[in-house]
Known about the structure:
It contains three helices and no strands. The protein is mostly helical. The two termini are about 15 Å apart.
Amino acid sequence: MYLLQIRWVVKSANALIKRWEFLDRTMPTSQVPYIADYIKKACFISNKYFPPLSTGGSQTTCIERDRWEKGWRDLNTRM
Length: 79
């Protein structure tokens, strides 16, 4: 269950990046050296002008921290 929660966050972040038409398609190999710069700029603009994925309220933060700690405890007991 916990891994699915992390996967949701990653997929949501990827969706924000793919909102940009240029980053939503396959790029030519000549652009490989610049991809990190493009992603950084798209993320900067998204963080500045679009709503966040999480509001980060104090109650939400406590719940997320508890889930994170429980997930690590569960993972460590399985190994």
